[in-house]
TrEMBL record:
Protein name: Dienelactone hydrolase domain-containing protein
Family the UniProt entry places it in: Belongs to the polyketide transferase af380 family.
InterPro entries: AB_hydrolase_fold, Polyketide_trans_af380
Length: 151
């Protein structure tokens, strides 16, 4: 199935900044249509690998939406490339209202208005993830997480 891609911005509910989204719409779309919202985890942007997956979903008849979190990619906000999980969860909610694996899991468990969620390669256990990588990389990520939490 053929599809078109529409790039646009929505406004963030927490700070009125522009959130960059790309909407992959199957041609001949029937409303309402199942929609898959895709956001990266660990600070990546929509241009870093979401497009091929969104295209496959759209070619199968689903609307797919990719987006960049505030402070990342094509979205507005400073400081750039600083990860704040609580704020990214709100960005996900904003995209849903106008959708990384851990965010999907958290949102689906709390948002009764969602029928389902798909977490592709989710990070749902940070400790287990750190224990599976080389020690030096794990320590570097842990230090970055502490700095992010402390501020």
């Amino acid at each position: 199935m053929e599809y078109t891609i529409e790039d646009r911005f929505i406004l963030s509910s927490r700070n009125n900044l522009k959130v960059a989204i790309s909407i992959y719409k199957p041609d001949g779309l029937q409303h309402p249509s199942p929609t898959i919202v895709m956001g990266h985890g660990i600070g990546a942007i929509k241009a870093a690998g979401l497009s091929p997956f969104a295209g496959i979903f759209a070619s199968e008849g689903y609307v797919a939406v990719t987006f960049d979190y505030i402070n990342f990619g094509e979205s507005e906000g400073t400081p750039r490339n600083v990860l704040h999980v609580r704020e990214q969860l709100q960005d996900f909610r904003d995209v849903l209202a106008s959708f990384g694996g851990m965010h999907v899991t958290s949102l689906v468990s709390r948002a009764r208005e969602l029928a389902a969620g798909i977490a592709q390669c989710p990070l749902v256990d940070g400790l287990a993830g750190c224990l599976q990588m080389p020690l030096a990389r794990s320590l570097k990520l842990t230090a970055a997480a502490v700095v992010d939490i402390v501020g």
